[in-house]
Amino acid sequence: MVIDMTRLDAKRWAWLLMAASGCATQKPAPAPPVLTLQTSRSIGSPLATAAPATGEAIASDDLIGLEIKWVAVQRSGEDGLTPLDAVATLTSAPLGGGAVMPNGEATRSAKFGGGIAARDWFDRASGGSRASAAAAELGHQTGWIAPGTTVRFVGQTPAPQRAVSISVYRLPTPLTKGTPATAAATEPSTEPSTAPSTAPTAAAGVATFAISFAAASTQSTDSSAPETAYVERQPLAENTPYLLVVPWRGAGPWTAIAAYISVLPASTADPETIATWRSANMAGSATAPSTQPVEQINLRRALDALATGGDPRAALIYLAAATNARIAGDVALVADASLLGKMRDAVKDTPATSPETVGWALDRTALLTLADAGGKAPLPPEMVAALAVYTGEVGRHPDTLAEITNAVGNAADLQARLIGENFIALEDNAASARVRAFDWLKTQGKAPADYDPLGPVRARRAAINKAIAAPGATP
Question: How far apart are CA 170 and CA 193, in angstroms?
Answer without folding.
Answer: 20
